[in-house]
């Protein structure tokens, strides 16, 4: 029952996050598009750019409404479906999320300010407002990613995860009171079988007993994994957002064949190309290194390392040392075996002599450690395949964009090759096809990346420390209720996308609409 | 309703009014959506224990509120973008869906406030009757009067805001203002019944809040002055709106400038009411018949929140609220409405 509910809520939460991430990508990508087009307008005074800014701004406005609402629902849904996460929000996530509020409210205020003043203030002023808005959007995305990164790599918990899973490295300085964390963990575990772990957080007496857990509320900011994640995720979202704009202009160029849309394509292509090269080579590389060091099981799943492997290239890429082996599950099991003979009671008493694990006292830590590995072992094929597809799609995205670039700009030799290979399509169709392929590949790469991030963290929600079953809602949710909620959420996403399509493609003719709406015509 | 009547009566004027008023809603919905996230974080961050209780015992009401928000946002977008593109009847139905979904938000969230005042469900949960507690949230005796008080209050404020909106310079329209005015007065009249009912219910079930509001001897925190200030403002609001009602003569009279004050006054009355509801529980966060539970029982004990950081964040949030208010005024008064004629020409 608990497992069923956990699985169902996983799917609903994932859907919510993916719908939100679509709007989020536009929130991060479109500001760059708008700034670029505004700059072009400022330098050339070409009205086409101004019109393009107006339409892009309308899309951004509608997108923000949907992004804010889906974001609120995802956040509220998170504490509703996984109330155990309230502990993370109230401790490690508190300062990042509090700061995120500033970024979030700044976003909406600056967006409205931009919309209201567009065309009424000088263009550099509009560029300035949009730049600050973009800064706020990036900050918001960065801080949310920072919190998610803490769940992936619980920085500040020191060697606590390592004590339970010896194949894990220490996670930064020890900013927690281990006794408090152990007390909380024992409370969660005591109700695990009944599926009521999260109820522990409802009890003021338990909260009092757990007491001060975190000594440095800013510790999540110090995580190197978090900052690599921020750079990786934020640029990925920007790329998807800009790619949406590119596909839109390509569609318009294909349909109308006019030069105006081509100008927009030419304006945004250099930024997109720059980001698409930078993202995997610098940020992706850095992210990979962090995963290799701090999430050994996920890295092994990605690399299909059932046994420890020696691969000089991977060693160099992942650890900066060709001699370094890729640790496999055999090595992890060996590490678990090193806990042989130790019980949970021994471990807890070592940290807190007054702790009472009750009937869990005799539980073998070695067995817990091994069962953790067993729980994810079978996911190796899936994660490894997803990772390979992700890399492949990333390459497809880059190649597709290169085709668009060489067909729109004159690039020696390359333009000629593209002409010879795809010339029969005609420029409009060629740009459209490859822009759509690029968008689809980017979106799927980003989605798979997030999938690997979330599924690769299992069997834990907080890596090495807390399981999903400890955090899930104790409310027995009716599957019909869940299905209806999911359906409403999905419709929201679809209607939102349709609304943006309408904004882009149809002009609002107020008077005519009013006349027809009132039944006068 | 204006959009529905525009279709039934074939009145383009009502159509224009509906569209203009709708723009106020769009801008404020955007801003209020942001505050939904802020409240979630503040509650979970500062009062994790209380939030954990709410996500369990008040699970279904919160789900209703979330679903309502989910329906509301796309319906707002659809209402806007299908205007004049689908049959007016369908469009009007869509408008009603949008409007009704707005009522769903307090339908869910007001259970939280009812529980804070009279925690019948929390008490059942404490006895181990979790399933019964999750349903009992809807049977809290405070809930229904509070909900109706909220609904009619919001409807009344909406009417007065519309009246004020059409009094703003360059936006003056006596006919539209009158429509807002009669809505405001009508629902204010209903509040005349619901308000005292809510107060009497508090007297029966929440003696501490009741005593604090009326400044009785057993008060733990006397807010009598705020109560009387609210009643006074209510009186002024009623008097002003009735005077205006007589002067406007169904929208044909001259719109006096003081009509501008109706919306802010109605808002102020609501803010005072909300303030009393929350501060009236002081020093408790959750009230019981004889006492209550202090905020310290629910406050975050897992981490020491740096007061300076909270102060800075609060300051910046308030700064953004001020910028928003200025921008919203500018947006509604100067810019966003510039694309609409003040009256409709049938020949267009």
Structural overview:
The complex is a heterodimer of chains A (521) and B (348). With 521 residues, chain A is mainly α. Chain A has one domain (2-210, 219-304, 314-507). In chain A, 74% of the residues lie in helices and 1% in strands. Chain A has helices at 2-44, 47-81, 85-90, 94-117, 123-152, 160-164, 178-190, 204-210, 224-256, 259-294, 296-302, 312-319, 329-337, 344-351, 365-377, 380-408, 414-422, 427-455, 468-471, 479-505, 510-517, and strands at residues 157-158, 171-174. In chain A, strands 1-2 form a two-stranded antiparallel sheet. Chain B has a domain at 159-277. Chain B contains 14 helices and two strands, in the order ααααααααααααββαα. Chain B has helices at 2-9, 12-46, 48-57, 59-81, 88-117, 120-126, 130-136, 143-165, 174-205, 207-214, 224-248, 262-279, 295-298, 307-335, and strands at 286-287, 292-293. In chain B, strands 1-2 form a two-stranded antiparallel sheet. In chain B, α5 (88-117) crosses α8 and α11 packs antiparallel against α12. Chain B is globular and about 60 Å long. The two termini of chain B are 25 Å apart. The interface between A and B is large, with 82 and 86 residues.
SSE map:
The complex is a heterodimer of chains A (521) and B (348).
Chain A: H1 2-44, H2 47-81, H3 85-90, H4 94-117, H5 123-152, E1 157-158, H6 160-164, E2 171-174, H7 178-190, H8 204-210, H9 224-256, H10 259-294, H11 296-302, H12 312-319, H13 329-337, H14 344-351, H15 365-377, H16 380-408, H17 414-422, H18 427-455, H19 468-471, H20 479-505, H21 510-517
Antiparallel strand pairs in A: 1-2
Chain B: H1 2-9, H2 12-46, H3 48-57, H4 59-81, H5 88-117, H6 120-126, H7 130-136, H8 143-165, H9 174-205, H10 207-214, H11 224-248, H12 262-279, E1 286-287, E2 292-293, H13 295-298, H14 307-335
């Amino acid at each position: 029952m608990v497992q069923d509910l956990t699985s169902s809520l996983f799917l609903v939460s994932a859907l919510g996050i993916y719908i939100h991430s679509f709007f989020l990508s536009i929130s991060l990508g479109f500001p760059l598009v708008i700034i670029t087009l505004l700059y072009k307008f400022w330098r050339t005074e070409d009205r086409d750019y101004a019109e393009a800014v107006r339409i892009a701004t309308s899309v951004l406005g509608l997108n923000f409404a949907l992004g804010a609402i889906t974001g609120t629902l995802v956040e509220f849904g998170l504490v509703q479906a996984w109330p155990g996460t309230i502990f993370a929000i109230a401790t490690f996530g508190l300062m990042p999320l509090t700061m995120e509020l500033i970024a979030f409210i700044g976003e909406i205020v600056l967006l409205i300010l931009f919309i209201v003043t567009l065309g009424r203030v000088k263009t550099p002023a509009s560029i300035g407002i949009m730049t600050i808005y973009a800064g706020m959007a990036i900050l918001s995305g960065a801080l949310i990613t920072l919190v998610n990164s803490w769940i992936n790599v619980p920085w500040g918990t020191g060697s606590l995860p390592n004590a339970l899973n010896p194949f894990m490295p220490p996670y930064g300085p020890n900013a927690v009171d281990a006794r408090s964390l152990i007390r909380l963990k024992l409370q969660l575990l005591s109700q695990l079988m009944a599926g009521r772990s999260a109820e522990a957080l409802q009890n003021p007496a338990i909260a009092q007993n757990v007491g001060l857990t975190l000594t440095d509320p800013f510790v999540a900011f110090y995580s190197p994994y978090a900052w690599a994640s921020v750079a990786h995720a934020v640029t990925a979202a920007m790329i998807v957002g800009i790619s949406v704009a590119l596909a839109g202009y390509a569609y318009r160029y294909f349909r109308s064949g006019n030069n105006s849309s081509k100008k927009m394509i030419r304006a945004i292509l250099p930024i997109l190309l720059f980001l698409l090269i930078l993202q995997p080579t610098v940020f992706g590389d850095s992210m990979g290194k962090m995963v290799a060091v701090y999430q050994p099981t996920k890295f092994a799943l990605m690399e299909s390392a059932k046994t420890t492997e020696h691969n000089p290239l991977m060693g160099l890429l992942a650890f900066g040392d060709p001699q370094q082996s890729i640790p496999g599950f055999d090595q992890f099991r060996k590490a678990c075996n090193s806990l042989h003979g130790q019980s949970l009671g021994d471990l807890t008493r070592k940290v807190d002599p007054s702790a009472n694990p009750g009937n869990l006292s005799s539980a073998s830590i070695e067995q817990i450690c091994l069962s953790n590995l067993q729980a994810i072992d079978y996911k190796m094929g899936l994660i490894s395949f997803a990772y390979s597809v992700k890399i492949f799609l990333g390459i497809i995205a880059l190649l597709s964009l290169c085709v668009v670039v060489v067909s729109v700009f004159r690039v020696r030799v390359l333009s000629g090759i593209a002409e010879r290979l795809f010339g029969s399509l005609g420029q409009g169709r060629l740009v459209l096809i490859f822009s759509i392929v690029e968008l689809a590949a980017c979106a799927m790469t980003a989605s798979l990346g997030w999938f690997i991030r979330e599924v690769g963290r299992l069997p834990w929600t907080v890596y090495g420390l807390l399981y999903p079953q400890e955090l899930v809602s104790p409310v027995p949710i009716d599957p019909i209720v869940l299905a209806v909620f999911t359906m409403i959420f999905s419709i929201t996403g679809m209607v939102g996308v349709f609304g943006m399509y309408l904004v882009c493609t149809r002009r609002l003719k107020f008077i005519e609409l009013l006349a027809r709406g009132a039944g006068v015509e | 309703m204006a959009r529905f009547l525009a279709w039934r009566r074939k009145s383009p004027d009502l159509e224009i009014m509906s569209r203009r008023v709708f723009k106020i809603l769009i801008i404020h919905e955007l801003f209020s959506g942001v505050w939904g996230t802020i409240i979630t974080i503040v509650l979970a961050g500062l009062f994790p224990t209380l939030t954990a209780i709410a996500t369990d015992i008040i699970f279904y009401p919160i789900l209703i509120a979330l679903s309502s928000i989910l329906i509301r946002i796309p319906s707002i977008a659809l209402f806007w973008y299908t205007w004049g593109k689908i049959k007016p009847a369908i469009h009007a139905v869509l408008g009603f869906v949008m409007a009704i979904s707005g009522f769903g938000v307090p339908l869910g969230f007001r259970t939280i406030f009812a529980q804070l005042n009279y925690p019948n469900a929390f008490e059942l949960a404490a006895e181990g009757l979790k399933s019964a507690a999750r349903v009992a949230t809807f049977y809290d005796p405070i809930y229904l009067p509070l909900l109706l008080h909220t609904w009619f209050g919001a409807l009344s404020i909406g009417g007065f805001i519309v009246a004020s909106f059409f009094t703003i310079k360059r936006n003056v329209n006596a006919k539209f203002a009158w429509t807002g005015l009669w809505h405001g007065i009508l629902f204010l009249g209903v509040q005349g019944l619901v308000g005292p009912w809510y107060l009497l219910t508090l007297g029966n079930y929440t003696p501490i809040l009741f005593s604090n509001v009326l400044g009785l001897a057993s008060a733990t925190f006397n807010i009598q002055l705020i109560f009387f200030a609210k009643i006074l403002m209510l009186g002024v609001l009623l008097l002003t709106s009735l005077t205006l009602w007589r002067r406007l003569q169904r929208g044909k009279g001259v719109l006096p400038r003081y009509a501008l004050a109706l919306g802010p006054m109605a808002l102020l009355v609501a803010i005072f009411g909300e303030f009393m509801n929350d501060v009236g529980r002081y020093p408790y966060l959750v009230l019981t018949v004889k006492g209550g539970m202090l905020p310290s029982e629910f406050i975050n004990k897992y981490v020491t929140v740096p007061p300076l950081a909270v102060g800075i964040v609060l300051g910046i949030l308030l700064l953004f609220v001020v910028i928003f208010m200025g921008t919203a005024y500018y947006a509604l008064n100067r810019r966003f409405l510039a694309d609409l004629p003040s009256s409709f020409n049938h020949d267009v």
